[in-house]
Design a protein that fits this description.
Elements lengths: L4 H12 L3 H17 L10 H11 L1 H19 L6 E5 L5 H9 L5 E6 L2 H10 L4 E4 L11 E7 L7 H14 E10 L2 H16 L3 E4 L17 E6 L2 H7 L5 E12 L8 E3 L4 E3 L2 E7 L4 E7 L5 H6 L5 E2 L12
Parallel strand pairs: 1-2, 1-4, 2-3, 4-5
Antiparallel strand pairs: 5-8, 6-8, 7-8, 9-11, 9-13, 10-11, 11-12
Helix pairs in contact: 1-3, 2-3, 4-5
Length: 324
Amino acid sequence: MQLPPEIVQFIEDRAERIPSGELRQACAALSAHYRGRGSTAGLRLRPEAAAAAYLLMRFPATYAAAHAALAELKVRLGGVEPASSLDLGAGPGAASLAALAVFPQLTQCTLIERLETMREAARELLTGARFLAGDLNSWDNYPEQDLVIAAYALGELPERSRQAVLIRAWRAARVALVVIEPGSPAGFSVVRQAREWLLEAGAHLAAPCPAEGACPMPAGDWCHFAARLERTSLLRRMKAAMLSYEDEKFSYVAACRRDVPRAPARIVRRPEHAPGLVQLVLCDGACIRRELVTRRASLYKPARKSAWGDSWPPEYKPSGSLRT
């Protein structure tokens, strides 16, 4: 996954406005925050430096995760194209830009974001979008749109207010709601709880789940996927990283107003390859199980090409699938 060149240039231009020492400190503080999973409201950074660090460190990862999850939703919608979107806790608009890339017929984007520095950056990236200032508890009702996205937003909220925000988000979604959180035990816990609440509200699951029953992921494990993204040279310097890429681990759930065809099963771990053998870890909706595909099996070649996050058996080859 590569960000569009104009977005890369925008991020680097913003980073260049901040003295290198201050930018490095802001990037380090932001990384520590995400490792500790605290609230971004607790970060004590100059707003301009915090925004530049977020654009550099988190914007590409958020874009990649949102693009992957939304591409899977697009397959499940079967030709239905949302015309409008609502981005909750939008930051500088990474999820909205991913939505526009996946659903080019989107003509109306609304973003809710509490920080002016983030809204100001998003205005430059999303000309013509509508912006609402405030946190997610500022409204009794969100404006109704076809597609609602809560990317890395619910986990930032106190647990007591998450359900109310999710209920408002679902009420606003005319076609689908997508919730994305970090691919960690804590992030998956937020997604799993959202999944339960959405089912109680009468939502139909689209992805990644193959079924709408109780989640079969056992205690101590978590369902997550990975989106590989290219690191710019500036990002490598800020992270003191050697690799030219990184894998953004994320958990997600996509819910729809109408029932849609779901994957027969989902590959929930990176496939393991051995001579003449591929081992897959699958969620079939009822349990998490391992499947060994040998060279003699009819599905051996598809298994060799399969990737973490794919449907199994393979039904399709969507553009932007959850490949590492």
